[in-house]
Specification:
Helix content is 38%, strand content 17%. With 339 residues, it is of the alpha/beta class. Bound molecules: ligand PBG. The site of ligand PBG has 11 residues, from helix 6.
């Protein structure tokens, strides 16, 4: 983290020539303030049924839905690259989606089978989950819906059941991305009571109602289903103080880490959260951010490798400790090859 305003004025020109330290790579490296490392990366992966399947997601070039065996192979690759954690998102079969979302807490649902398979094969890799109902919901919402209203307290009960099933399957980090009020406290109490005292919660505390989630909704099959929008539970992109109040609330209820989402358009929020609370902060460089960089690079309009590196360094500069990014394996390979 930067230490704040410098306590002196720079000597006037030519006493200070900032270009002296930019003259050569060695001096630029010496004067560099922030570092991006493989330890800062969380790799989101999409799971689907079957074996030996890699199904491309057209709106996310380079990302595919993978069957559990392929997920395990990628988990092994993550461990080889030194990536500390993966995050699993299921593509649920359409006939298992319902208004009641019961599949969400089925101990043998796709996500839970994937957690077990990964933990059996690569126990040292941290597995993060998504706690929200949208991959299981007939109407694409993160919560239970009645007469067009997203129900808060009823949804919390479902999220608690879902959390316990994920913890039972071996998840290391639970990632509630639903934005219901009060879910962190309920999840924490239930985890303690069930003996899962060391399962971490990374709360999606400041999650905005964003247009940048489009490709993700394609990936989990929620796009065509979503009825209306998520503005009654996700944050208004115009707000900033509210993010601090949400973070304070989630920390007080037992969150171990907090997330800001999306990432690049909300770096000011990342910075304020880190400065205010000094807790582990992560950002989610979401599907639309990834797609923008990939698409522009695919057209030859920007240098994709440099844009990836610059965007991820920006999260570190803003104060983030970790970044969920679909670029995780590419970035990890680049960092390895540069050493
Ligand atoms: C929903 C969820 C979303 C993402 C992660 N969890 C989408 C949404 O809120 O509609 C988006 C991630 C991305 O865009 O990469 N529980």
């Amino acid at each position: 983290m930067p230490l704040g305003p410098v306590p002196y004025a720079a000597a006037p020109f030519p006493g200070t020539r900032f270009r002296r330290l930019r003259r050569m790579d060695a001096l630029r490296r010496l004067a560099q303030e922030n570092v991006l490392s493989v330890n800062d990366l969380i790799w989101p992966l999409f799971v689907r049924e079957g074996t030996g399947i890699e199904e491309a997601i057209p709106s996310m070039p380079g990302v595919a839905r993978l069957s559990v065996d392929r997920i395990v192979a990628q988990a092994e690759e993550a461990a080889r690259l030194g990536i500390p954690a993966i995050c699993l998102f299921p593509y649920t079969d359409p006939d298992l989606r319902s208004e009641g979302c019961e599949e969400a807490w089925n101990p043998d649902n796709l996500a839970n089978r994937a957690i077990r398979a990964v933990k059996a094969a690569v126990p040292e890799l941290a597995v993060m989950t998504d706690v929200a109902l949208d991959p299981y919901n007939a109407n694409g919402h993160d919560g239970l819906v009645h007469d067009g209203v997203i129900l808060n307290d009823e949804t919390i009960e479902a999220l608690v059941a879902m959390s316990l099933a994920q913890a039972e399957a071996g998840a290391d980090i639970l990632g509630p991305s639903d934005m219901m009020d009060g879910r962190i406290g309920a999840m924490r109490a239930a985890l303690e009571a069930a003996g899962h005292k060391d399962v971490a919660i990374l709360s999606y505390a400041a999650k905005y109602a964003s247009a940048f989630y489009g490709p993700f909704r394609d990936a989990v099959g929620a796009s065509g289903r979503l009825v209306g929008d998520k503005k009654t539970y996700q944050m208004n992109p115009a707000n900033s103080d509210e993010a601090l109040r949400l973070v304070a609330r989630d920390l007080s209820e037992g969150a171990d880490m907090v997330m800001v989402k999306p990432g690049m358009p909300y770096l000011d929020i990342c910075h304020r959260v880190k400065e205010t609370f000094g807790v582990p902060v992560s950002a989610y460089q979401v599907s639309g951010e990834y797609a923008m960089i990939r698409a522009a690079a695919g057209h030859g309009w920007i240098d994709g490798t440099r844009a990836m590196t610059e965007s991820l360094m920006a999260f570190r500069r803003a104060g983030c400790d970790a970044v969920l990014t679909y670029f995780a394996p590419d970035m990890a390979r680049l960092l390895r090859d540069e050493v």
